[in-house]
Amino acid sequence: MTDLESLTQRVLSACADLARMSQEPGRITRTFLSPPMRQVHAYLKEWMERLGMSVWVDPIGNLRGYYPANKPTAPRLLLGSHLDTVPNGGAYDGALGVVLAVALLEALGGRRLGFGVEVIGFSEEEGVRFGVPFLGSRALVGRADAALLALKDEQGVSVAQAVRDFGLEPEHVREAALRGEVLGYLEFHIEQGPVLESLEYPLGLVEAIVGQSRLEVGFRGKANHAGTTPMHLRRDALAGAAEWIGLVEREAWGEPGLVATVGQIQALPGAGNVIPGEVRCSLDVRHAFDEVRTRSVAHLITRAQQVAQRRGLELAWEVKLDQGAVPCDPTLLERLEWAVQDCELPVHRMPSGAGHDAMIMAERVPSAMLFLRSPGGLSHHPDERVLPEDVTAALRVGLRWLEILEEHGV
Ligand code: GLV
Ligand code: MN
Ligand code: MN
Known about the structure:
Elements (H helix, E strand, L loop, with lengths): L2 H17 L16 H15 L3 E4 L5 E5 L8 E7 L12 H13 L8 E7 L12 H6 L5 H5 L8 H7 L16 E9 L4 H5 L3 E7 L1 E10 L3 E2 L11 H17 L5 E3 L3 E4 L5 E2 L2 E10 L2 H22 L2 E10 L2 E2 L2 H13 L6 E4 L4 H5 L5 E6 L15 H21 L2
Parallel strand pairs: 3-4, 3-5, 5-16, 6-15
Antiparallel strand pairs: 1-2, 2-4, 6-14, 6-16, 7-12, 7-13, 8-11, 9-12, 10-12
Helix pairs in contact: 1-3, 1-12, 3-12, 8-9, 10-12
The structure holds glyoxylic acid and manganese (II) ion (MN) (2 copies).
The site of one manganese (II) ion (MN) has 6 residues, from loops.
């Protein structure tokens, strides 16, 4: 076995180990600063320290490890991805990018580069616990403000309290922000879609990350007895929400490239013999062009108003995220393309339909992403996988990319 093949096995076994660190037995679920995140930090800290890295957890709960440069005053390159998961998620979305970053430094065999390398395991990217994604990377770009710390989860626990409960100090959240000279940020990530597999390509270069809107939409009617209330006297919030959800799907079918999802719904009071009086739904809308996305969101709200009015319901909505599409950095991408070519692999540039910390990091530093093919195009699912040969390919490309950055700069 070559060194890179045995490192590939190390990457896959680390992803399997992290997948067992879950807040739900038998499922991979790890939300922002949940108890298993401590185990994840301890596991990766031990590995990074063995490579001579200094490791700390910043005040928003990002795990950060620094691999020193070959000279004291050198800029830093950032590598990373996120350590949280969706409920019942897979073992690779996020975790693979962090583990690959550490493995890449291990592959250097102790050699120091002309720049330092910081590995970041972001504390939150999925938006599961607080309905708002990218908590970790927002803090790095200096956007962790009072409003973000005040967000509450379904149990009424704020971000600030969750941070405190984890043993960190939310008052110092600004200290998570990037300082000093940063060359750029690279994120390895599974594609989470079927394109690379259909082309039989192991890797893809991400040119841009599509924009996304996330909203919470509430319908309020009147709870009442399911047996005694005739149909024409009901104000059923769930029946109204269901009608609107059908319109959401139709809107996306009618607009090329648009995807729209209601992935979460809560109906109250939640009993089989009670008409639902109150419903809260999530709405996730994405498109490569921000104008199309924002126009569709406005249209879907108008549709919800029409449904609510006809059914005697009250409507309320809150925009939780309005994140524009983000291009990746052309120079970093070009260097990555050279690395893929030097490894005699096919070059394929593509957009990302999923959101990533890279889209937040791009506000402050040149950012790029390298996708690994997703078998079956599957992600956000426990059957999510990655092929060992693609992990080896990513390590080879990553190593060559570091050499190119040393030779040519960024
Ligand atoms: C993150 O996985 C997203 O929702 O795109
Ligand atoms: Mn994800
Ligand atoms: Mn991800």
